[in-house]
Design brief:
Four copies of one chain form a homotetramer. Chain A has 256 residues and is of the alpha/beta class. Helices cover 38% and strands 17% of the residues of chain A. In chain A, strands 1, 2, 3, 4, 5, 6, 9 and 10 form an eight-stranded parallel β-sheet that branches. Chain A has a two-stranded antiparallel sheet with strand order 7-8. In chain A, α2 links the parallel β2 and β3. In chain A, α3 packs parallel to α5, α4 packs across α5 and α5 packs across α6. The two termini of chain A are 14 Å apart. The mean pLDDT of chain A is 95. Chains A and C meet through loops of A and loops of C.
Chain lengths: 256, 256, 256, 256
């Protein structure tokens, strides 16, 4: 059977005069992009521009909503009630959709950002608050969450198609959660190593943990970071290595 | 022929712990509401709540986008390029729509707020930037602008249905523009006087200017303010006085 | 021996067009005010105005710094590193001082706001981050914290004068922490009951807990809320009842 | 007589995860830095760090207050009343001072940013609002403004020491104002040309205008930009060329 995988990248995270990520250079090597919606990054002009860029590249265009915290780039937890989280997501999905409908596009998938993503991986109530927002906005949208996470579980419970995500350049702990960025060696920087991990993930359904053991891991999409110094090189190498190993790189689709 | 008019009110302008306007009390006396979209007022929770409130009241639900300036309540001019203004509007229309689609509703009309409204009344380029955003978002939406304004003109040019707005509690200058709030007597506070003005506006197509002369004025909708001390009393009095004068109060509709 | 106490109130929490608190009416009944610094409430114009108001009333003028979260009014926890918290506080103390020095005044005391206050009551690292900021800004400033809290302890360790605060209108749990606002009955609304609590706190050094038992409690200052419907009546009643019971109401001072 | 000049650079304009300017690399070639205060750029952590950096480099540390507009980087005009502008400035000066006093430093000078700088160059009321804020904050601080501007005039009227600023890499119009950035050729990018302009400015008191004529120009400080691709090279070249031409580069001082 032909193996296949989606490669996704967070984009549109620049803000006003500030540039973040090498969106244009990474685009050729990914099949789905997750666009910031103005709360942890992105602004209306950045969103307008990035939507056009993504449309031209013919990739899936998804939303990447986060906490309203530009200074912390959405990486700081903010305690919010489930209803507040649902409203937070609906607002951002709608805002992004404002630019997509102008281009005749719609939000294909939703991937929460930063602290919201991490909390929704382990907190079922929060995960439900997110899943409910996506379902109420457009039940055709795919919900992207960490493989094995509460978000994937609650997404299914909400009747949504889900995409299980894996990380190339972040280490996994034994329990399948990510090693926090603050820990040494949490982030992998070698494109070669990342590419080999990608092949193993898709080909064998496994990843080597921080502690050195094989962990089972099923994924529908792999995250490519666009804001690191080695981003472009890594994206290219992963993309090419997957192809060389007869793994098809194609956009995630509802129902697989 | 039966005379008819729409009464509109800006709502959902509270923010976090801060309350603005007596939305619930004014609702019975208006037929269209313009909801703040989080930039000059409103936040996702306020928007979620106000959309539900408005739906229950069976009024037209429109968007009230403004400059991104909570401290200045969108009343301070910010110099922005036309493309920036278009993106500003698209973002806010989308954000509001996020809550409306959950309720099976859509944005019936768009009325810019504060400084944006005033500038779009006289600046054709800015007016076009606004009209274009509304058209690109949903060309069924009605664009609301000051009677005689550039916004009405550009809205028509964009192929949109427009609603010409009149103000009960703001004085008009000879040229048909509003007397700035900073000027003494710019704002009328007497419900009786306001109600009489409404009847004259709809019945005779005239308003008495600041300088005391009759000005011709055609309007499809009249603005009722919800954030003044006398807001509820004024709304009620205007509503009742119109009915008493055989003027039908009904929601604005596309194509009149 | 003459008993004495300081009454403090959070003020200057309005923002732009939004009013919060009945500052002017509560002022006659308090001896210290804690002014919001623009992050959870307050803006430069509100700060300028409230500083003038407080100076005229001849009360202690302190800072009331909080998390940068206007929508959540600083009541939501935001995970921040200690260095980030220290910088957060220094910024806000400085900003308030900008207005005080114009009036020939200085910050007499610092009381963290909302979630920051509550976290600094139980988290020693956060408490130290706050205390260090106050000391580095001006070591003559008094640090205000919950009686028995980590903040009081770390403030002393930083070499600061501290003021132990008690709450009239919030219930205490057995362990001396406040019952969360979300719990029923957490907030007391009866001015009579509040006044009696104040007399018992200062006179006997005790408070009746949520569970109904006497808790020992020593306080240098009692918090009067200014943003509730009964705020003015409660402030007045507490003030008068204290006087009637021969308790002197006077501003907190360094070294008692 | 020995010619001398101050070289100043705007710094600390990064924000959260976003980097702006090559502060550390430009520092060796300037004698005064103007630090963003959190409104158009900068955040408490950036400010804390940049103050330490500047102190270590033994340069003048000044404030660079701007409009509260991160997205527009303070380059968009916002209509504000004079009292609002004064409060805006006081807040930002105070906030920066919070970090300086920790290091035993004080604000040596104040240079408004972006649209505020440009408006204060031509609008006497706004210029006075700025000058008054600086005087009320600390009348020892030097006010930096465009040579020939209203800001310089109002600064003197407020009793402040002033520093007349010249721009190397921005073209001048016949009337002495800067060619708007939006115009082609408004910004000079050649370090060689910039260095030659600096020598001519200080040595001859002249600059060649956009239209090609010699304009008289007296300056106490020259602005070095730190956020362009050629920033470091230009700073270095200007610094070295001035020295080679026997012009002393030293920090601006009150009373010349």
């Amino acid at each position: 059977m032909v193996k296949k995988i989606d490669l996704n990248c967070d984009m549109g995270e620049s803000f006003g005069p500030y540039t973040m990520g090498r969106d244009q250079e990474v685009l050729p090597y990914v099949t789905s992009v997750n666009l910031a919606c103005g709360f942890h990054g992105g602004d209306p002009m950045v969103m307008a521009k990035t939507v056009k860029l993504a449309k031209k590249a013919k990739v899936n265009i998804g939303a990447h909503p986060g906490y309203h915290d530009l200074q912390g780039f959405g990486r700081r937890k903010i305690t919010m009630a489930p209803d507040e989280v649902t409203a937070l997501i609906l607002y951002q999905l709608g805002a992004l959709d404002g630019f997509l409908r102008r281009e005749g596009e719609r939000i294909t998938h939703v991937k929460p950002h930063g602290a919201l993503y991490n909390q929704a991986a382990v907190d079922a109530k929060l995960a439900w608050a997110v899943a409910r927002a996506v379902r109420d906005f457009d039940d055709r949208a795919i919900l992207v969450g960490l493989f094995g996470s509460a978000l994937i579980k609650e997404g299914k419970r909400a009747g949504l198609d889900v995409a299980r995500e894996a990380f190339l350049d972040r280490h996994y702990q034994k329990d399948g959660t990510l090693v926090p960025r603050s820990q040494p060696g949490a982030v992998l920087e070698d494109p070669e190593q990342a590419a080999a991990r990608a092949v193993k993930m898709v080909g064998e359904g496994k990843v080597v943990s921080y502690e050195g053991q094989d962990l089972p891991l099923s994924c529908d999409t792999i995250c490519i970071h666009g804001d690191t110094p080695q981003a472009v090189q890594m994206a290219k190498r992963v993309f090419q290595t997957l192809l060389k190993n007869d793994i098809r790189v194609r956009p995630m689709r509802a129902n697989g």
